[in-house]
Specification:
two-stranded antiparallel sheet, Alpha-Beta Plaits, about 30% helix, about 120 residues, alpha+beta
């Protein structure tokens, strides 16, 4: 199992990402509105930052997506994110990474119900 953490910069692409996750068989995801460091620094301490450098990456709002995935889905989900978000290698499109998950309680099954532990 892997915990996917993805930051999506473009709100209009969220539905396509979430629909793609469902199609791939992901059990679910949680979205959290977030702000990036560039935006906060520009708002709170513009005198201390290179405004031109940070302004390129400052977004009004990002979304953090969390999803616990079986190992076999990770490559397909990364391909989905890369294609849907326009190439994560390009600056300002988002970021995605996974971390190993050793134990899960309450994970919803794509077929309904929950798994007590995995």
């Amino acid at each position: 199992m892997q915990l996917l953490v993805a930051v999506v910069h473009e709100e209009d692409k969220l539905e396509a990402v979430l629909s793609g996750l469902v199609e791939l068989g992901a059990a679910g995801a949680t979205l959290v509105p977030s702000e990036g460091m560039a935006r906060v620094l520009l708002q709170e301490s513009p005198i201390f930052v290179d405004v031109d450098a940070f302004a390129r990456y400052a977004r009004p709002r990002n979304y953090m997506l969390f999803s616990v995935l079986p190992d076999e889905l990770v490559d397909a989900v990364f391909a989905l994110l890369d294609a849907t978000l326009g190439g994560l290698a390009r600056p300002g499109t988002g970021i995605a990474f996974t971390v190993p998950v050793n134990r899960v309680l309450g994970l919803a099954s794509p077929l309904g119900g929950t798994n007590a532990t995995r």
